Amino acid sequence: MRVSTIRPNSRASLTYDQYNAVLMEFYNEFADPAARRLGIAAELSRPEIHLETWLSPRAADLLRSFSKLAEKYILLPSDRKRWHMFLAQAHRERTTLDPRILKRWLIEEEKWSESLAYELTTDYEHARGLLEVFESQKAG
Asked: Into how many domains does the chain fold?
C-alpha cells in the first residue's frame, strides 16, 4: 500500500510541513499499528524525493537549468526556449512526472511565484497532451 498524495478538503494546497505532519499522523495512528497487528513492516520513504525519481538525469538537468536561469516572475523568450527544451525531453522520455509534483517543486524548492508555477504546470500538461496527439497522428 502506498500514499501517493494528500489533498485537503478546506484549502487549495498544503505547505510542505503541513503535508508531512498529516502523513506522519496517518503513519503513527493508522498505518504502523495496522502493520504491526498483521506482523508486517510499515515504512516511510525518505522525506525528500529528487527529480530523478520521475525524470532522467538529462531531463532533470534541463528543468533545473531552466529554473536556475529564468526570471521567476515573468518568462522571457530565452526562458521559454529552455522550458520548451525540457518539455521536449520529458515527452521524448515519456516521463512520469506528475504536474502536481512539478508545481510543488517549482514553488517550494525553486521559489517560483504561485501564479507562474500554475501557468508552467498547465503548460506542461497541455504540451504533453499535444505531443502525444502529434505522435499518434504521425504514426497513423
From this structure: 2
Judge whether 42 and 35 are in contact, CB under 8 Å: yes
41, 35 in Cβ contact below 8 A? yes
Residue 113 structural domain: 51-139
Residue that the C-alpha cell 532533470 belongs to: 60
Check: pTM over 0.90? Answer yes or no. Answer: no
Dihedral sign, Cα of residue 55, residue 111, residue 124, residue 84: negative
CB contact at 8 A, 121 and 99: yes
Cell of 127: 504540451
Q: Tens digits of per-residue pLDDT, 4-43?
A: 677 777 766 677 678 788 888 988 999 889 999 999 988 8
Tell me the three cell numbers of residue 15.
Answer: 505547505
Cα separation of 91 and 133, whole Å? 12
